[in-house]
Design a protein that fits this description.
The complex is a heterodimer of chains A (about 750) and B (about 350). Chain A is an alpha+beta fold and about 750 residues long. Chain A folds into 3 domains: about 150 residues, Aldehyde oxidase/xanthine dehydrogenase, molybdopterin binding domain (Aldehyde Oxidoreductase, domain 4); about 190 residues, Aldehyde Oxidoreductase, domain 3 (Alpha-Beta Complex); about 350 residues, Aldehyde Oxidoreductase, domain 4 (2-Layer Sandwich), CATH 3.30.365. Chain A contains 17 helices and 30 strands. In chain A, the strands form 8 sheets. A 7-stranded mixed beta sheet of chain A has the order 3-5-1-11-8-9-10, with helices on both faces. In chain A, strands 17-18-26-27-30 form a 5-stranded mixed beta sheet, sandwiched between helices. In chain A, strands 7-12-13-14 form a 4-stranded mixed beta sheet, sandwiched between helices. In chain A, a hairpin with a 2-residue loop joins strand 22 and strand 23. In chain A, helix 11 runs parallel beside helix 12. The longest helix of chain A has 26 residues. Chain A is globular. Chain B has a domain of about 100 residues: 2-Layer Sandwich (Enolase-like, domain 1). Chain B contains 13 helices and 12 strands. Classes of the chains: A alpha+beta (about 750), B alpha+beta (about 350). At the A-B interface, helix 3 and strand 28 of A face helix 8 and helix 13 of B.
């Protein structure tokens, strides 16, 4: 590949469409005679529906039907059919299945009317009576019921805790310096700006075209096909733009089920959009309780490490995330023990949320390491370097690449870490206490198989497509760059499309794996197209390419050229003409090299340094500056990559200081279920954010050498902030978010 | 949202007539920044909206006594940035700008600001018990969910009713009204019985056993203007707002502090007049002249400020999650008074 645009800070190719409103989202597609569905949500947490009165709702003008468990169509019987591609082990929630209420906010009716306003009003008139049963929702009160989670397909990408190594108990007991600490995190909800919506267009032949908010159109297609027993070819799911996902779109949400059900029953197109309050009625980042024990030598060498986590899940599925494994991979600690358990409660199943488990576990271990550094009287960065490992101690295998040391060095230098005064409360200006803290970030660099198609059109333009998603990350842009460079075309001659099940299959967008996964497919399919072009060139009369192999040519400036003699060249347009003026089309699959990849642990790393100002009397915290250095392999586009890291850093500020869904456990109901009271940062909360990309070469992770940057930006941030707050105030807060009352 | 009738009168008398025609079921609407939300949530279910935006109430006028009349329909943004408000009532300008967001302040009006309803989670969720919202089964169950529930943002003062019970611990969410309380503004209203004026201190009320009533307006009355007295305490004032993020969040505690200082002798200043009001702590802006009296004649020192804070917070009662507000409020008062006296910088 002749790099012209890869590695350049190209502005988003979809930017103009987005800022001009041309980009259409799931609820913006329409159809003739579109009906509107509004969901009625349960107001109790556990029990049975004893009576539903839909009379007043049905009496209103424009109301077409009210669906409840009493009149829903017969659907697939087995649990298996309700399992989407990201379903954890268990029995997936079925909307309107029966009279049982399993969690607060559960959908209990769908009101369908000719206008949205009619449906919304009618929904308020549906009267539901319940027989309540006692519920359990408070993780901290039910830790005694913790148990091992069931394992399933999810464990492929989410390995269970590593096996214990050495003898933790003995090593911890004998360690001259010991630390036992714990951290509690509350619920969080993804709350992408775009509300979950599905517009189901009912075709004349009963075929469905579904505009869905999803991080993977193929997953929605699979789910609908299974549940409603419709062949794949009769369900097309389209999702060209997604207004934020953060993991919430990894599983089909209940509005999809309800909209499809209504459209099929009424034989008419239907749209269902959730309200902001209803955005709090499905997956969320689980509440977690963690415990960490560290045993160290006076010089900081870790002898013993124990990391245990307990997280909530629903009664019907065992959601898991990787919380404790990171500690064991990051630090040598020859004697180590890990534990991860779940507590089933009367709630909806949790769902991956940006750096799921990673930001949770790393927040705990990196705060614990900070605590230990003060016990040892040692610089927190020095303690990390003391226990730095070039090999993954969990798996006893090398890293495919690990430039974490360079991250520490470069970020520390940019931040000015050496000027830090080590004592807590030793830096101040008037009432303002100043604190400096640091932490480490780690995240997976996984690759999955993916497919893509490339077409060189009769006009010499390149069209590439794959059924992946762009949830705002910049996928459109980087895929366009990869395709452009592979075939030597200018960006404006390349159109990359995604989010449509008519396109070649790709995994959902999540886990920071799209750049490497779909990027590899795009690279390979464009190379395959190049091979087709070479074949055409070789067939030309007296072709100077007659004996050329693919390795002998390169593509640049809309031409194929011989490496040995670049003056030997041919326009791609000429090759299309040579093809009888017909477009040239190839499809390819990028497979993972499991044999090679399995020999390495593949992680992206980061080092984060943060300055906070804390008002000594009032407890208010301001993150005045933060530096993150990231080693994530090759950076395809420093501009979109930087945006991803900054987004993660902002979310780190949110998690550390502001964000939590609060439940009134008497009712089992989330109380701050709107964006006025569920706080995430506003512009005034954000000050200087600095991002460095550390050079890192990796031939193992995928053919492009990219690790993905979707999650790594958030991972180290909350711990760095909490550590800076301790340095400023001398107060260690063990429960996030660190609101002002906890610092008074 | 329940269907409603929409009227758009052009005169004050017509607007009052429109509302009086169905006093229980009609609501005035101006900016709508709070009412529309509440209607979507079915917390408010008016059958008629009387849009008053065409009424001639959108001017700021100087009064003969040196005060200023703020029309009810002047937006919060236009008020905060009005040159006369910035010069003579900077405390009011600061308080307004501490609230909401630029977009909301562009829509919200001065009259409407007085009618902001509480941000209590239980009030907003019609499946939760709430005495303030409750006026029939369509608006959810009675009781106070917050009292023994999640009450981090709730009141610490003035919650007890005459019978010794607590029926509501909601707070009034306005920033502007806290400054108006400190400045002793006067609310001008027109109603079926003609015009009258209400001192701001008497405009909002404590919950008692009728928390559904936020204010003392009579049926059909319309706020036409807010009068500011001549003294705007423009030299020594501070509006300090503490909240869970730097902008676009309601106050956990806010303080409007205003002082007049006189050079008493060579050794320093003495307080000759003081005003002190708090937001986020009660069902109305919280002010006690006894606390202010403790400041007058004293030198501006943290000790003196602390005594005023104790007096203003006398009788404060926490309900669990919000108990931290008592200490936070005390520290905030001391800080705000120190800022007003220019002993501390303002952010």
């Amino acid at each position: 590949m002749h790099n012209q645009v890869i590695g350049k800070p190209i502005s988003r190719v979809d930017g103009r469409a987005k800022v001009t409103g041309k980009a259409k989202y799931a609820a913006e597609f329409t159809a003739p005679d579109l009906l509107h569905g509004v969901v009625v949500s349960s107001t109790i947490t556990k029990g049975r529906i004893t009576h539903i009165d839909t009379g007043d709702a049905l009496a209103l003008d424009g109301v077409v039907k009210v669906f409840t468990h009493q009149n829903r169509p017969k659907l697939a019987w087995f649990d298996m059919s309700y399992k989407d591609l990201d379903a954890p082990p268990g029995s997936p929630f079925r909307p309107l299945h029966n009279d049982r209420i399993k969690y607060n906010g559960q959908p209990v009716a769908l009101v369908v009317a000719e206008t949205f306003e009619q449906a919304r009003y009618a929904a308020s008139l549906v009267k539901i009576e319940y027989a309540q049963e006692p519920h359990e929702t408070d993780l901290q009160h039910h830790l005694d019921t913790a148990r091992k989670p069931a394992s399933g397909l999810a464990s492929l990408l989410k390995p269970p805790p590593p096996k214990a190594r050495g003898n933790f108990d003995k090593a911890f007991t004998e360690a001259p310096v010991q630390l036992s600490t714990g951290y509690v995190h509350g619920f969080e909800h993804h709350n992408p700006m775009e509300l979950f919506s599905s517009t189901v267009v009912y075709g004349k032949d009963g075929k469905l075209t579904i505009y869905d908010k999803t991080q993977g159109a193929p997953n929605s297609q699979f789910y609908v096909s299974q549940v409603f027993n419709i062949p794949f070819r009769d369900v097309r799911v389209v999702s060209p733009y997604v207004g934020g996902g953060f993991g919430s779109g990894l599983r089909p949400q209940y509005q999809l089920f309800l909209a499809v059900m209504a459209a099929r029953e009424l034989k008419q197109s239907v749209r269902v959009s959730l309200t902001r309050q209803q955005m709090f009625t499905f997956g969320h980042r689980p509440a977690t309780v963690q415990h960490i024990d560290l045993g160290a030598q006076p010089d900081g060498t870790l002898d013993a490490l124990r990391h245990a986590a307990t997280a909530e899940t629903s009664r019907f599925e065992d959601y898991i995330e990787v919380v404790v494994n990171w500690s064991g991979a990051l630090y040598k600690a020859p004697n180590a023990q890990f534990d991860y358990n779940v507590v089933p409660l009367d709630q909806y199943t949790p769902l991956d949320m940006r750096a799921p488990g990673g930001v949770t576990g790393m927040s705990a271990i990196e705060c614990a390491m900070d605590e230990l550094s003060y016990k040892l009287g040692m610089d927190p960065l020095e303690l990390r370097l003391k226990n730095y490992t070039e090999e993954d101690p969990n798996e006893k295998r090398p890293f495919s690449s690990k430039q974490l040391r360079a991250c520490y060095q470069q970020a520390a230098e940019r931040f000015g870490w050496t000027k830090r005064s080590p004592e807590p409360r030793s830096m101040r200006e008037g009432h303002t206490l100043i604190g400096w803290g640091m932490a480490t970030g780690v995240w997976d660099a996984n690759q999955l198989p993916a497919r893509a198609e490339a077409v060189l059109t009769v006009n010499g333009k390149l069209r590439v497509s794959s059924a992946t998603a762009d949830i705002g990350t910049g996928t459109y842009t980087i895929m366009t760059q990869i395709a452009a460079d592979t075939l030597g075309l200018p960006l404006e001659d390349v159109l990359f499309r995604l989010g449509d099940t008519d396109m070649p299959l790709a995994p959902f967008q999540g886990g920071s794996l799209t750049a490497g996964t779909v990027g590899s497919a795009v690279k390979i399919v464009c190379e395959d197209l190049g091979k087709e072009l070479l074949k055409l060139a070789r067939k030309m009369p007296n072709s100077p390419f007659a004996k050329a192999k693919f390795d002998d040519v390169f593509f640049v400036e809309k031409q194929m050229r011989l490496k040995a003699d670049p003056s030997v060249r041919i326009d791609l347009q000429t090759l299309v003409d040579q093809n009888g003026g017909r477009a040239i089309r190839t499809t390819a699959t990028s497979m993972t090299n499991s044999l090679k990849q399995g020999k390495y642990t593949r992680y992206a790393h980061s080092a984060v340094f943060v300055e906070v100002q804390v008002d000594e009397d009032l407890g208010t915290v301001k993150v005045t500056r933060a530096v993150t250095a990231v080693a994530a392999g090759r950076i395809l586009n420093p501009k979109t990559a930087r945006s991803q890291i900054i987004g993660g850093m902002v979310w780190g500020i949110s998690k550390a200081l502001e964000e939590e869904t609060v439940m009134d456990h008497r009712y089992g109901r989330f109380m701050n279920h709107n964006l006025a009271e569920y706080h995430v940062p506003v512009c005034a909360d954000i000050h200087e954010l600095d991002v460095l990309f550390v050079e890192e070469h990796d031939d193992v992770v995928n053919p492009l050498g990219v690790k993905g940057v979707g999650e790594i930006g958030i991972v180290g941030m909350p711990a760095a902030i909490a550590n800076a707050i301790f340095h400023a105030t001398g107060k260690r807060v063990h429960e996030l978010p660190i609101t002002l009352d906890k610092l008074m | 949202m329940k269907p409603f009738q929409y009227l758009r009168p052009t005169g004050v008398d017509a607007a009052v007539r429109d509302l009086t025609a169905q006093p229980d079921a009609a609501k005035f609407i101006a900016g709508g920044t709070n009412l529309i939300d509440l209607m979507k949530e079915h917390v408010e279910q008016p059958t008629t909206l009387v849009d008053i935006n065409r009424l001639p109430l959108a001017t700021v006028e100087e009064l003969e006594d040196g005060g200023l009349r703020l029309g009810a329909l002047v937006t919060n943004a236009d008020t905060a940035y009005h040159p006369l408000v910035e010069q003579r009532y900077p405390l009011l300008s600061k308080a307004i700008l501490a609230g909401a967001s630029a977009q909301l302040r562009n829509m919200a009006t001065n009259g409407g600001n007085l009618f902001q309803r509480t941000r209590c989670y239980y009030f907003y969720d019609t499946s939760m018990p709430c005495n303030k919202r409750h006026s029939g089964p369509s608006q959810g169950p009675a009781g106070c969910g917050a009292l023994h529930g999640y009450n981090r943002i709730h009141a610490i003062l003035g919650t007890e009713s005459a019978d010794g019970n607590v029926h509501c611990i909601a707070t009034h969410p306005s920033d502007m009204c806290v400054a108006l309380a400190a400045l002793e503004a006067v609310v001008r209203v027109s109603g079926p019985q003609g015009e009258r004026t209400i001192p701001i201190a008497d405009f909002h009320r404590l919950p008692g056993d009728t928390p559904q009533h936020d204010n003392t307006l009579r049926p059909g009355e319309l706020v036409t203007a807010i009068d500011l007295p001549a003294n705007g305490f423009s030299h020594y004032n501070s509006y300090l707002k503490l909240r869970d993020r730097a902008s676009y969040a309601f106050a956990l505690v806010s303080v409007a502090a205003a002082l007049e200082l006189e050079r008493s002798d060579a050794s320093g200043d003495q307080i000759s007049a003081a005003r002190l009001a708090m937001g986020g702590v009660a069902h109305k802006p919280w002010r006690k002249t006894e606390a202010e009296a403790l400041l007058v004649g004293q030198r501006p020192t943290p000790d003196v400020f602390g005594r005023a804070a104790d007096a203003l917070l006398d009788g404060a009662q926490g309900y669990g999650h919000n108990t931290f507000k008592i200490e936070l409020a005390k520290r905030a008062i001391v800080r705000a008074l120190s800022q007003a006296a220019k002993l501390e910088p303002t952010e």
